[in-house]
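Pipeline run #58 for the internal structure catalog. This entry was flagged by the ingest filter as a single-chain record with no existing model, so it goes straight to prediction. Upstream metadata was stripped on purpose; only the residue string is passed forward. Reviewer on rotation: M.T. Logging verbosity set to normal.
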Amino acid sequence: MAAGVTSSVQLYTAAINACMANDGTDFQAAFDIYATMQRNDVEPDDLLYGHLITFAGRCRKLEVAFDLIEDMRASGLKPSTPTCSALMYACLQNNNFAAARKVYDTLIARGVPPHISQYNALMEQYALRYQLGNVVSLLSSMVTGGIAPNANTFRILLLACQRADQAELAFELYQLMKARGLQPKHNNAHSICYTLLRACFNRIRKGWRLGGYPPKAEPAGPYSALPGIRPAAAQQLLHVLEPGWAPGGRTGSSGSSSGWPGRRHTFLDNTENINWPLLALSTYRDFLSWGYKPHLEILDKLLACLRLQLPQQQQHKPRQQAAAPPAQPTGPSLQSSPVGQASVVEEVPCVKTQAILRDLARERRALSAEERLYEVPFDRRALDAVSDAINAGLLPALKLDRPLTVDMRGFPPCLAEAYVHVMMAALEARGAAVAAGQVKRAVAQPVRLVVPAFDHNYVMWPSYVEKLYVHYNEQLLARQVRWQAISAVG
């Protein structure tokens, strides 16, 4: 500018962008550039205003963002998608959701739709408030305006379903996401995988405790009036996302409506036949097949889904009349899927868990008291998942031929418990090999586990389920906030 190059608005826009680089917060420098541009009689464009409004929002200067809108109108420029999206972003960055929604409504009334990133941001705010209906309404407006949902949109839709206790609908959306070829990546993959596993866990927990999901809800809390499956919300979502949807289709035997005559949805129309532990495991394997390296929180939630139900808990369940099995779906076969592999029985809702318990009981009867060194409260596939994580380098290796020290202070509670079970199994196998003469020389090596100061009542099986990760939850929530912030970009 000292050389006299002052006539290009692109030059000023680039200078403002430089102030914003690397999460910069020196808004005064950007505003000085804007003032210099005005003194030099350079006409700004909507792109420059969009950058300035975004920067003002990042720097928590919401009033300046609205002042810039007034400057824009005074210069004869009409609101556009970049500037409107920037203003919505500024409102949300300043935790003023009401203002963001008002801006959105004004823009839609004027026929100026925001960018998909701001649609996603608004929908996420509604999802966090357990307002699935408003999420669906925004999605309908977005798709009607010609904006196709991206992977981040599906992440938010899945979150909305999980928060509203609509696990079946969440997995219908997950199938649609895969059918569209929207493979989640990086932090998006983590958020989606965790949300789906949490949805499975919520359903499994319903069979564990009276009152269902969520536990200990306050009378006036957001969960107080959560229904079961919401046919209206499900129909509208599928209407928006599934090509060829025709409202007014027949009603399935489970009570949900299908938009195609004779078509049944895999999850919504088979609610009584879903094997939630197996569905959690297959979802986890989906993400592994895409090259996703799971965080410890993901593995921990999977293990929570694969925990066996206590026989003592089953004794308190009311007896149920045997129900006739629902009609088989007319669509693709479910024999190899997590749906349709469990049926309704007389006493307990989870036949798969009961079958596992019966298998374990038969094994215990076959073993002598000396051979039964400990019992494992997990499905066998849970320990296989831990072993795979050890082999992949996600968890410390178990090298029992030398002194072993494992720092478990960063382990989530359920993962820590399962890891110890895997270690015990490895020690048993090594002892059996020595007894059978398969190992010529075996010297007992010390094993040291470094654990945090922790109330043992929270990690004794299954009391930690009742406590809901009391000590661990704060750290997990903080990490989730960071992941959501990263995932929300785009």
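catalog note: The chain has a mean pLDDT of 75.
catalog note: The two ends are 33 Å apart (CA to CA).
status: ready for reviewer M.T.
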